[in-house]
Design brief:
CATH topology of one domain: Rossmann fold
Shape: globular
CATH architecture of one domain: 3-Layer(aba) Sandwich
CATH class of one domain: Alpha Beta
Helix content: 25-40%
CATH superfamily of one domain: Nucleotide-binding domain of ferredoxin-NADP reductase (FNR) module
Number of helices: 9
Radius of gyration: 21 Å
Number of strands: 19
Order of helices and strands: EEEEHEEEEHEEEHEHEEHEHEEEHEHH
Largest sheet: 7 strands, mixed
C-alpha cells in the first residue's frame, strides 16, 4: 500500500505506523478457485460471520472503496476455520471487477451479513435439493443441513455441459441420491433439472419438500413441476436489492397476491405462491443502466491497460 493505509470504512487515511486493526473488520480472501471463464469462488476469513451464518442467508458485498453494493448468497461456511464462501458469476460491471481484482491475499472492502431469514430446515423424511447453474452453490448448505437433521436427501443439479460442473464431490458426501442434468447430455441425464425432479418423483412417492435455487425461469419451472402433486416447494428469490434492510423497497416481490421484501421476509418463499412473471419483469428494469456501466468500466480498464508500459520497455 506504500506509505498509506486505508481504514475499513475508507473515511480517512493514516500514515504509518499503522493503527491496530480489529481482525473482525477485515475481510481477507484466503482462497480463490475458478470453475469456468465466468464463475469463480471466493473464500474470505471472518470468524464471527462464519459462526452466525445459516443456510439460505446472504451478504451484501462492496468489493472496493466507492464500489457498488451487491447481494450474494452464502454458498458455504466453515465455523472451525472461520471462513465464509461465495460463488460469483461475472456477468455485470461489479462482478467482472471482482473477477479481475479479487484473489488470494486481497481484501473485500466491506461485507455485511449474514442477512435474510435462514432457511427453515424441518425434521422431514425426504428432501430434494435442486440447483441450476449458479444456484448449485447456495443449495449446497440446504442439502447438508437436511442431511444433518436426518433427512433422506436427493440432490439434483444442472449445468449446460460437463466442463461447467463443480462441487459434485461435496454434494455426493451429503446426498443419498445424486442426479446431474446437462443441456447437451455430456454428463448425467440429458435435460433440465425439472427432468431430474420428475425422476425423483417417479421413484419416491413420499417426498416432503423440494428446495430449488437458480434463475427465476428455472425456479418457476420447478414449482410448476411439483404443483400437481402438491409437494411443498421452496425457492430463493434474487430481486434487485440496494440496502438489504427493507428500507428501499427495491426487492419487493409478489407472494400469493401480497407484497413481501426478499431481504427481510425472505429470500426463501413458497414457490407455488411466487409471481415469477412480475419478478422477471422487475429484473429487466435496469438492463440499460447495467449495460452502460459495463461499457464505461470496460473502457476504463482498456485505457488503464494501454497506459501500462510493456515488459520490454521497463527499465
Amino acid at each position: 500500500m506504500g506509505s498509506k493505509q486505508k481504514t475499513r470504512r475508507g473515511l480517512h487515511k493514516i500514515s504509518k505506523p499503522a493503527l491496530a486493526v480489529n481482525e473482525e473488520s477485515v475481510f481477507e480472501i484466503v482462497r480463490r478457485e475458478d470453475f469456468s471463464d465466468v464463475t469463480f469462488l471466493l473464500e474470505f476469513r471472518h470468524p464471527m460471520m462464519a459462526k452466525a451464518a445459516k443456510p439460505g442467508q446472504f451478504v451484501i458485498v462492496i468489493p472496493e472503496e466507492h464500489g457498488e453494493r451487491i447481494p450474494l448468497t452464502i454458498a458455504d461456511f466453515d465455523r472451525e476455520k472461520g471462513t465464509v464462501t461465495l460463488v460469483v458469476q461475472a456477468v455485470g460491471k461489479t462482478t467482472k471487477q471482482m473477477q479481475r481484482n479479487c484473489y488470494t491475499g486481497t481484501e473485500l472492502f466491506s461485507v455485511v451479513g449474514p442477512m435474510g431469514k435462514p432457511s427453515h430446515i424441518d425434521d422431514i423424511g425426504k428432501a430434494v435439493c435442486v440447483g441450476g447453474g449458479l444456484g448449485v452453490a447456495p443449495v449446497f448448505p440446504q442439502a447438508r443441513a437436511f442431511k444433518e437433521r436426518g433427512a433422506y436427501v436427493i440432490g439434483v443439479i444442472g449445468f449446460r455441459n460437463k466442463e461447467l460442473v463443480f462441487w459434485e464431490d461435496k454434494f455426493r458426501k451429503y446426498c443419498d441420491e445424486f442426479i446431474i442434468c446437462s443441456d447437451d447430455g455430456s454428463v448425467g441425464v440429458k435435460g433440465l433439472v425439472t427432468d431430474g425432479i420428475k425422476l425423483a418423483m417417479e421413484k419416491h412417492a413420499d417426498i416432503d419438500e423440494v428446495v430449488a435455487i437458480g434463475p427465476p425461469i428455472m425456479m418457476k419451472a420447478c414449482a410448476e413441476t411439483t404443483r400437481p402433486s402438491g409437494i411443498k416447494t421452496t425457492v430463493s428469490l434474487n430481486p434487485i436489492m440496494v440496502d438489504g434492510t427493507g428500507m428501499c423497497g427495491g426487492c419487493r416481490v409478489k407472494i400469493g397476491g401480497s407484497i413481501r421484501f426478499a431481504c427481510v421476509d425472505g429470500p426463501d418463499f413458497d414457490g407455488h405462491q411466487v409471481d415469477f412473471d412480475d419478478l422477471m419483469n422487475r429484473l429487466k428494469r435496469f438492463v440499460g443502466e447495467e449495460k452502460r456501466a459495463m461499457e464505461r468500466w470496460s473502457e476504463a480498464c482498456r485505457l488503464k491497460d494501454e497506459s501500462l508500459p510493456s515488459i520490454g520497455s521497463r527499465s
